[in-house]
Structures are given as C-alpha cells and as structure tokens.
C-alpha cells in the first residue's frame, strides 16, 4: 500500500448537492464520489462527472468507495455518462463500489458495461472521502 501522503491529491469538491460530493484527483483521470446517488442529486452527479469526462485524456475511473446508496436515478446518471464516453471514444470504469451498489449493478445486468478499475484503489487518498462524508 502506498503512503497516503505521496498519493495524488484530491481537489476540492467539484460539485456538492445535499449529500453528494465529487472530487477529481489531480494528475489522474479519476473521480472520487461520496454520498448517496439518488433522485435528489443524480443530475448534479451527472454534471460533475460529465465535466471530468470531457477533461479526461482517454478514460475515466469513478471510485464509489464513499457511496453507501444508489437508486435507479444514480444508475441512470452513470449510464448516461457511459453513453457520452462512448460517443467520445472513451470508457468508464467503476471501482470500489459497496455491496449494495454492486448488487444494483448485478441485478440490472449493467456491471459489464463499466470496465474494471485500473488497480489504483490502494493509491487513492481517503482523507477527501472522510471529510465529505
């Protein structure tokens, strides 16, 4: 495990809406998401992730370690983001999803639509997630 002090720094929240915080990680096409992904903040999630995708060089990894709940609205935001990524010739990876989110992805047969994370979960800063939770 890498030293958290030497990990890429998380930026200030790119978008905060109620119980949602989205942080870009400097120097990586990676976004940390914390909070609940539901009807109240699905549009804010999509807008924040869309901006990160548009700035990404190739692909975008969405780390959901800080997410404890995701309903169909949150899933729809992720699917809309995937659609936009495909139009740009990019992919979306999801990593760190809790069992409830993984269950939603499995039940809806959407997990295969998101590529596997690139193995950088151990190098991510966790302080940003703790501050926003």
Q: How is this fold's topology laid out?
A:
Blueprint: E1 15-17, E2 20-24, E3 30-37, H1 42-55, E4 60-70, H2 72-87, E5 92-95, H3 99-107, E6 115-116, H4 127-132
Parallel strand pairs: 3-4, 4-5, 5-6
Antiparallel strand pairs: 1-2, 2-3
Helix pairs in contact: 1-2
In short:
This protein has 133 residues and is α/β, with parallel strands linked by helices. 34% of the residues lie in helices and 25% in strands.
Describe the protein's architecture and organization.
By secondary structure, the chain is of the alpha/beta class. 34% of the residues lie in helices and 25% in strands. The chain contains four helices and six strands. The protein has a six-stranded mixed sheet with strand order 1-2-3-4-5-6. A hairpin with a 2-residue loop joins strand 1 and strand 2. Helix 1 runs parallel beside helix 2. The longest helix has 16 residues. 35% of the residues are buried. The N terminus and C terminus are likely disordered.
Rounded mean pLDDT score: 78
Number of strands: 6
What is the SS-derived class? alpha/beta
In N-to-C order, the SSE pattern is EEEHEHEHEH
Helix content: 25-40%
Radius of gyration: 13 Å
Order of neighbouring strands in the sheet with most strands: 1-2-3-4-5-6
**Model regions low in confidence, pLDDT < 50 over at least 5 residues:** 1-13, 118-133
Span of the ends, CA to CA: 23 Å
Shape: globular
What fraction strand? Answer: 15-25%
Tally of individual helices:
4
Features:
single chain; 133 residues; 4 helices; disordered N terminus
């Amino acid at each position: 495990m890498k030293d958290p002090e030497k990990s890429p720094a998380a930026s200030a929240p790119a978008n905060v809406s109620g119980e949602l915080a989205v942080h870009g990680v400097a120097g990586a096409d990676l976004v940390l998401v914390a909070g609940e992904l539901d009807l109240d903040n699905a549009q804010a999630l999509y807008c924040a992730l869309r901006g990160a995708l548009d700035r990404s060089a190739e692909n975008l990894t969405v780390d959901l370690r800080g997410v404890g709940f995701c309903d169909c609205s949150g899933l729809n935001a992720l699917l809309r983001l995937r659609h936009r990524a495909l139009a740009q010739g990019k992919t979306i990876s999801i990593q760190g999803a809790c069992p409830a989110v993984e269950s939603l992805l499995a039940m809806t047969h959407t997990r295969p639509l998101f590529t596997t994370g690139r193995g950088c979960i151990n190098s991510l800063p966790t302080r940003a997630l703790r501050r926003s939770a």
